[in-house]
């Protein structure tokens, strides 16, 4: 798991988090069948934390896209005023 920079989010990190979350879900299913309750409990905590990081990263990516779009719009508007 890499360190996430929420100020400069990358879509690759979102995909990594989604893959990590999917692996955790699979592990929970397997360990639930084998009866390893302690490990399942710990994995459920990890799943919740991963889900929270994923949601925060998604919001950061949305914010970054809005900011870039807004900046590009401003640059385009200022360019037309100068012409």
Kindly describe this structure.
The chain contains 2 helices and no strands. α1 (11-34) packs antiparallel against α2 (37-82). It is mainly α and 83 residues long. The longest helix is centred in the last third of the chain and has 46 residues, at 37-82.
Which key terms come to mind for this protein?
rod-shaped; 83 residues; 2 helices; mainly alpha
Low-confidence runs of at least 5 consecutive residues: none
**How much strand content do the residues show?**
under 5%
Rg result: 20 Å
Q: Helical proportion?
A: over 70%
Q: What is the number of strand segments? A: 0
Label the structural class: mainly alpha
Number of helices: 2
Question: Which word captures the global form?
Answer: rod-shaped
Mean pLDDT over all positions = 88
Profile the largest sheet.
none
Q: H/E series, N to C?
A: HH
Spatial separation of the terminal alpha carbons: 49 Å
Write the layout of secondary structure elements.
Layout: H1 11-34, H2 37-82
Helix pairs in contact: 1-2
In short:
The protein has 83 residues and is mainly alpha-helical. It has 2 helices and no strands.
């Amino acid at each position: 798991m890499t360190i996430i920079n929420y100020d400069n989010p990358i879509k690759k990190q979102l995909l990594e988090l989604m893959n990590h979350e999917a692996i955790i879900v699979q592990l929970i299913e397997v360990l639930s069948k084998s009866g390893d309750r302690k490990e399942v409990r710990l994995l459920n905590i990890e799943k919740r934390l991963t889900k929270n990081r994923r949601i925060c990263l998604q919001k950061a990516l949305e914010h970054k896209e809005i900011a870039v779009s807004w900046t590009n719009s401003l640059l385009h508007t200022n360019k037309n005023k100068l012409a």
